[in-house]
Amino acid sequence: MPPTSPGVTGEMILFIIFGAAAIATALVMVLQTNPVRSALFLVLNLFCVAVLYLLLNAWFLAAVQVLVYTGAIMVLFLFVIMLLNLGTPDREADRLRPQQPIAVLSGLVLALIIGGVVLSPLPNPSPTLRDDRLGTVEAIGRNLFDPAQPWLFPFEVTSILLLIAVIGSVVLAKRRL
Amino acid sequence: MPESQAVTAAAAAVPLSWYLMLSAVLFTIGVVGVLIKRNPIVIFMCIELMLNSVNVTFIAFARYLGDTGGLMFTIFVMAVAAAEVAVGLGILISIFRSRENINVDEINIMQG
To answer: What is the tens place of the pLDDT at every residue in B32-76?
Structure first.
């Protein structure tokens, strides 16, 4: 029985621990009524997903995940929550309360559909996992800036997108133009 | 012999379908969160959750198919997510300025 050697289990155990933690923190985030706690649980969830990136040998993207998502985006979220001073909303004001069971039901249907697609056999599984150096900074940089690859133009367009986002958010949040 | 064993162990490490299932579960939680939440900031956070679950899929496929396209797409998804959050929170702040209330049920100024 070659595939199930005991050396496998370390990665599997890590996957199970951090995958379960990711699902649990995501659930708590959705079920939480306090937005600050939701944001902090989302931070935990993003950390767990970063560990999964490490398991997938995407070291650079794990670092970017922690820096950009938990460092920049979540701080922005927390800043806006505290700026707007949103407390826990009162449940009586919720006029669309009957929507919730329907939402959960349709979510389950969606999970069944996605699960059916995911568990269908892949056209080319071939998980040889031979090349382990795809996730390093050097490999990603070489691929991103290689003129033979199609990523250089989207990368430059992304810089324009970020510039537009910066200008747009300043214009939107400015008190008076 | 230990090297060949290591190769087979790596090949069997965690099945690709486990990552895909985890990603599907996270995505569904995000969808349900968008549907049941009334606070637009939390809705944005649920959208971030969905984007992240898609990133897990991208990176899992990049690893298991040995293709860097998934990693590149993840970079672009992160950049788009950052831009989206910046603009969205700017919109929320300006709505809060004009209405003092950002419950999504109350915001109907674009209703025809």
So the answer is: 999 888 888 999 999 999 999 999 999 998 888 888 888 999 999
CB contact under 8 A, A99 and B36: yes
* Residue A108 distance to chain B (closest CA, Å): 8
B101 chain-A contacts, CB cut-off 8 A: none
Here the CATH number for the domain that contains residue B20 is 1.10.287.3510
- 8 Å CB contact between B80 and A162: no
User: What value of ipTM does the predicted structure carry?
Assistant: 0.85
- Distance, CA of B66 to CA of A10 (rounded, Å): 22
CB contact under 8 A, A5 and B72: no
Interval A90-122: pLDDT, tens: 555 566 677 888 888 998 999 888 888 888 776
Contact B79 A8 (CB under 8 A): no
**What CATH number does the domain containing A58 carry?**
1.20.120.1200
Residue by residue, DSSP assigns A112-166 as HHHHHHHHSPPS----------TTSHHHHHHHHT-TTSTTHHHHHHHHHHHHHHH
Task: Kindly indicate the confidence band of residue A40, based on its pLDDT and cuts at 50, 70 and 90.
Answer: very high
Residue A98 falls inside a structural domain: no
Instruction: Give the residue carrying structure tokens 């992304």.
Output: A158
| Among A8, A107, A168, beta carbon nearest to B9 | A8
Which residue segment(s) compose the domain that B86 sits in? 2-99
> Residue A129 domain-assigned?
no
Q: Which among A88, A123, A151 is the end of a domain?
A: A88
Domain boundary among A88, A109, A124: A88
